[in-house]
Design brief:
The chain is α/β, with parallel strands linked by helices and 342 residues long. It is built from 11 helices and 10 strands. The strands form 2 sheets. A 5-stranded mixed beta sheet has the order 3-2-1-4-5, with helices on both faces. Strand 6 (133-138) and strand 7 form a beta hairpin. The longest helix is centred in the C-terminal third of the chain and has 29 residues, at 233-261. Bound molecules: 5'-O-[(R)-(carboxyoxy)(hydroxy)phosphoryl]adenosine (KG4). 5'-O-[(R)-(carboxyoxy)(hydroxy)phosphoryl]adenosine (KG4) is lined by residues 10, 139-141, 166-167, 169-170, 181-184, 187, 273-275, 277-278, 305-306.
């Protein structure tokens, strides 16, 4: 089974051809990603209207490239899949309309995929990870802890009450005058910084459950910056290091609580989403896993951020699990919880 998949929920126009091969090394035939980072960088974040126009400009070429690089003719593709949500409505519409048109013209079945389900299942595209697992999804637009019991069987244990983790990295980078996207810039600056110089309180510690909120950490960072008369490169590095330290510690503390809230007490812990590229976060989470004798697993960094291979893989998992194809009038859904997929 060969799937042509399209992803356009944020600022990456992506298309991929993925196959249900036994060996994980043979599954991704092509994975084309056209990033809009340079377009949004001057604004310090994604501008939805600009993103939609750029998706429209890029989508045809990206799909053509994916099919060509996959080495297949369109007649050899079995299913067309696209991200239906959650995400920015303009971009989602561009991807959905393109996918539905190809499905209609080539008489192939169509599958509308939840973007978060793509992130949730990516680890199984690359490695032999069995259900159940505890998942931490931390991206630019989403943050959640979920117990993944099987395909389509997800339980959210906790989520963010305000910003996503990536969004927090992006906003703090902007405060420091560092380049967008903020995550990699902060991680780089933090390498030369002293993480113990600026003090923070870990939020939410008197609250039950494992939800997170990053607004207190953001405000504290703003106050640290305001108190400095002049912000030197060393100050920036120290703030970046202290901020990264508190955010990654906070996430790991809440992850411990999330683990206690699972029904199945899974033996695997998986992290996904753009922030999963952060090496400090990976270190903290693997320490926790080592303590509790759990297996820690993260997709390769290139597949942690938005891509269409994960959408194609989610389609394969759903087909294998017996879920049906979508109708061509399937809705585009800017908000779509993983608890409401089916
Ligand atoms: O999953 P993703 O590629 O896209 C969307 O959410 O659309 O995540 C992008 C986010 C950005 O906010 C970026 O700053 C963050 O992931 N990010 C990181 C790192 N690399 C990317 N955050 C922390 N550390 C990193 N190394």
């Amino acid at each position: 089974m060969n799937i042509l998949a399209i992803e356009s929920s944020c600022d990456e126009t992506a298309a991929a051809v993925v196959r249900d091969a036994e060996d994980s090394a043979d599954r991704i035939l092509s994975n084309i990603i056209r990033s809009q980072i340079h377009v949004h960088a001057p604004f310090g974040g994604v501008v939805p209207e600009i993103a939609a126009r750029n998706h429209l400009d890029a989508i045809d070429t990206v799909i053509e490239e994916a099919i060509r690089a996959g080495g297949l003719a369109i007649s050899e593709i079995d299913v067309i899949a696209a991200t239906a949500g959650p995400g920015l409505i303009g971009g989602l519409l561009v991807g959905m309309v393109s996918a539905k048109t190809i499905a209609l013209m080539s008489q192939k079945p169509f599958m509308a995929i939840n973007h978060l389900e793509g992130h949730l299942l990516t680890v199984r595209l690359c490695y032999d990870v069995e259900f159940p697992y505890l998942l931490l999804l931390a991206s630019g637009g989403n943050f959640l802890f979920a117990e993944v019991m099987g395909v389509g069987n997800y339980r959210i244990l906790g989520q963010t009450l305000d910003d996503a983790a990536g969004e927090t990295f992006d906003k703090v980078a902007k405060m420091l005058g560092l380049e967008y996207p903020g995550g990699p810039s902060i991680e780089k600056a933090a390498r030369n910084g002293d993480e113990s110089r600026f003090q923070y309180t870990i939020p939410m510690q008197r609250r039950k459950g494992c939800d997170v909120s990053f607004s207190g950490i953001k405000t504290a960072t703003k106050l640290h910056i305001v108190k400095l008369k002049e912000v030197t490169e060393q100050d920036k590095a120290d703030i970046a290091a202290s901020f990264q330290h508190v955010v990654t510690r906070f996430i790991t503390i809440q992850l411990r609580k999330a683990y206690e809230m699972t029904d199945a007490h899974p033996r695997n812990v998986v992290i996904a989403g753009g922030v999963a590229a952060n090496s400090r976060l990976r270190e903290e989470v693997s320490k926790f896993c080592l303590e509790r004798n759990l297996a820690f697993c993260a997709p390769p960094i290139a597949l942690c951020s938005d891509n269409a291979a994960m959408i194609g893989w989610a389609a394969i998992e759903r087909i294998r699990a017996g879920f049906s194809f979508s109708e061509l009038d399937a809705k585009t859904r800017p908000r779509w919880s993983i608890m409401e997929i089916d």
